[in-house]
Amino acid sequence: MILALVLLAASVQASGKEELFTHAAAQRLFEQIGLGFAPSARSSPVVQDDNPFTLEMIPQDLSKSLHSQCLDGSGYGYYVRRALSPSAQDKWVLYLQGGGLCVTQVDCEARLKGDQGSSTWWQPMMGDKDNVVSRDERNPYHDWNHVYLKYCSGDTWTGTNEKRPGAFSLYFSGFNNILATVAALRRHHNFDAASDLVFAGSSAGAIGVNNNCDFMAALLEGVNVRCVSVSGLFFPRGTNALWLDRIGVGNLTAEIGSFYVTTLFNSHLDESCLLHAREHGDPGFLCWNAAYLVPHIGTKIFFAQNMWDSIQIRQILCRKDIHYARCPEQFLYDFKRNTIETIDLVAQGRDDVGYWIPSCFAHEQNMCVLTETIVNDYGLGEALREWEDESTPAPRLIDSCVSSLPGVEPCNPSCHGCGPETPGR
């Protein structure tokens, strides 16, 4: 494993050119270190709700023409419920579900045994959520049309490939599924008459939002599109994997990861970012990585991100099973600083970029609009409501609490996850 990694990293370091990467070597690396998060076999729970979402499958002609499907080739669909308020009939929220990504044949095939790899596990209805498609009035979009896109492609909503041996004979079609959903909404729900769209997602869904935010704004010309990215900052600028640092190639963390996943998924990436990469002689696959991508997002956007993303730290960058019993304090300090700087860089010179950054060690578990973490007197729902008010500056909230180990230890007392009384994400 180390030899394959060193050869791969050395080729990038020497040339910076995409063609010198060896995808097979990268695949062996990911298999041996065990990256990728495969959910356990399960189906969506049957729920009771006064105003449930209803599953609508993509019509067969659209599925065929747009190559829309789940990992196993089963048909794609979306959950929808129409606006409650007559004044909100032309206002929409499209929410991309998260759920990690799969990068090896083992973890990709594991997804086929549950609802994140096959629509055959999906239920006909779905209950309320503790996010921007909640019906609770604490959500500023509670009375809008809500569309919940389930995640069954394992590709961070960027995939466009066809079934082929190099992709484990599976379909990575997340981007295609977004396109097919928009086409179906136009056909069946008068989506062409939309005036407003909030394009949102969490975790892998937020990676999809980051990569497709400007695309959606261009696709829906004349619609007031804005984006909400929750826990999708994979990875902050200047952040290295410690296990790569140990062999002297930590600076290639973003290059190795971005190259591998974009090749596997045949990812659709942000056009303005790709143009920047071409103009500067950088490989285009870097546009999957948040630090390289997000400065090029031109559409109005709001970031909700914990100072310490527990998934990134525990499962990727500072993995305990690779000789690290505990992350060094300097790493934790740098991770917090890099997270804030990466988001703030997007906001410089703009008045439409908002953010909300709690001093918490968590991934998305506390990113709720009902059971709220509070940052400087603002819950997430309140921060989004103020961000929507164009008469006031976009809120930029960095947790001001003080810990016993400043910069290293979370200090927000409300870092709890979404409570048991709320119906999940």
UniProtKB/TrEMBL annotation:
Fetch the Pfam families from UniProt.
Answer: PAE
Q: Which residues cross the membrane?
A: none
Q: Which InterPro entries match?
A: PAE/NOTUM (IPR004963)
> Which N-terminal residues, if any, form the signal peptide?
1-16
Q: In Gene Ontology terms, what is one molecular function of this protein?
A: hydrolase activity
What keywords are assigned to this protein? Signal
The protein depicted here goes by the name: Pectin acetylesterase
Task: Name its species.
Answer: Pinguiococcus pyrenoidosus
